[in-house]
Design a protein that fits this description.
Elements: E1 4-9, E2 12-16, E3 22-26, E4 32-35, E5 39-40, E6 49-56, E7 59-64, E8 68-72, E9 83-84, E10 91-98, E11 101-106, E12 110-114, E13 121-126, E14 133-140, E15 143-148, E16 152-157, E17 160-168, E18 179-186, E19 189-194, E20 198-202, E21 213-214, E22 221-228, E23 231-236, E24 240-244, E25 255-256, E26 262-269, E27 272-277, E28 281-285, E29 301-302, E30 308-315, E31 318-323, E32 327-331
Antiparallel strand pairs: 1-2, 2-3, 3-4, 5-32, 6-7, 7-8, 8-9, 10-11, 11-12, 12-13, 14-15, 15-16, 16-17, 18-19, 19-20, 20-21, 22-23, 23-24, 24-25, 26-27, 27-28, 28-29, 30-31, 31-32
Length: about 325
């Protein structure tokens, strides 16, 4: 069998074949372990995966550009069958606040809420009539918030989407006010990124007229995750990581990363976050360490031969990434 090197970390070399297990071989000292390698979820047709959520360590749900959802055990993927949940338009994002409830949003402003353990829609409604929805977060099974073009944010109950609240989070930047990512630390506090270098923090139940804060002059904001209520990190298209306190954002924390576009991230602990980029690599780091001068970046580890499109980390020792070719790879980021 032909092997290839996936990456090196802490004295170990990852060897494996695509679609098979990878052997984590110690290069110095004793010890070895097996970890996941890229596994295809394309057993029943083309699945262009774009977003993933893992409410449990043994359950993840990914959605595709073609309106499909596929639920699988990341530790034993098998041959899960994708299910059509949206026949209207391209899905962009999914959030799963529980093992029995996920919500996805699409580019025509619709939300689709479904039970991943027993596929079938629970609700489906158009919640944004004049905006493309790019991201959704669900801090509870009763509350979700979605963001998209025209500075639009929609807070809604996934089980009763007709009772929704629509707000303009950015009325200051005209055609450039595209909200690209959202993260919620509670049902009363969410932060969203504006593509052109700003962030806005708000209460989805009562957003008022929040004032966006500029964090980077030439930013192309792609990803967002919050390690705690007082520390979130933005990943950009020009390889910068920007930590900030949602309650009091400042300009003092731009950290260059040795990576291209930081397309997705997850923070399973207040002291641990993981980025994935568009060349199939991951970088795991302590988000608090981004602020001090003299920060040294941890190694960038190759986990996939394709550009990665999404990441979820149900625990500090387990993350699952997906790509546009229908592959998933599960790994221990520590």
């Amino acid at each position: 069998m032909m092997l290839r090197v996936f990456g090196v970390r802490s004295g170990f070399v990852w060897l494996g074949a695509v679609g098979a297990a990878v052997l984590l071989v110690a290069t110095g000292g004793a010890g070895a372990a097996t970890v996941g390698a890229p596994v295809s979820l394309n057993h029943y047709g083309d699945v262009d995966l774009v977003s993933i959520a893992c409410p449990l360590s043994r359950q993840c749900t990914a959605v595709s550009l073609h309106g499909l959802a596929v639920t699988f055990d990341p530790l034993a993927p098998g041959t899960p069958r994708p299910v059509v949940i949206d026949q209207r338009a391209r899905l962009e994002s999914v959030a799963c606040p529980s093992a029995t409830q996920c919500t996805a949003v699409d580019v025509q402003g619709w939300e689709d809420t479904f039970d991943p353990s027993s596929p079938g829609l629970l609700t489906s409604a158009r919640i944004a009539t004049n905006s493309v929805l790019f991201a959704v977060a669900c801090p509870s099974i009763r509350e979700c918030a979605a963001v998209g073009t025209r500075g639009t944010e929609v807070a809604f109950s996934p089980r009763s989407p007709s009772s929704r609240r629509t707000a303009k989070l950015d009325s200051y930047h005209g055609a450039q006010n595209v909200l690209t990512a959202i993260a919620c630390t509670s049902t009363s506090s969410c932060s969203a990124t504006i593509e052109t270098g700003l962030e806005v923090t708000f209460n989805p139940a009562s957003p008022g007229v929040p004032r966006p804060f500029r964090l980077e002059a030439q930013g192309h904001f792609l990803s967002l995750a919050c390690a705690s209520a007082s520390l979130c990190v933005i990943g950009t298209g020009n390889a910068n990581a920007l930590p900030f306190d949602p309650a009091s954002p400042s300009l003092d924390g731009i950290t260059p990363m040795n990576a291209p576009e930081l397309v997705s991230e997850a923070c399973p602990l207040a002291t641990q976050c993981t980025f994935v980029d568009d060349i199939g690599s991951e970088i795991t780091y302590d988000p608090a360490s981004l602020r001090p001068i003299g920060w040294h970046q941890p190694p960038s580890i190759q986990i996939d031969r394709n550009p990665v499109t999404g990441l979820a980390c149900p625990s500090a020792t387990q993350c699952t990434a997906i790509d546009g070719e229908g592959l998933e790879v599960t790994f221990n980021p520590t």
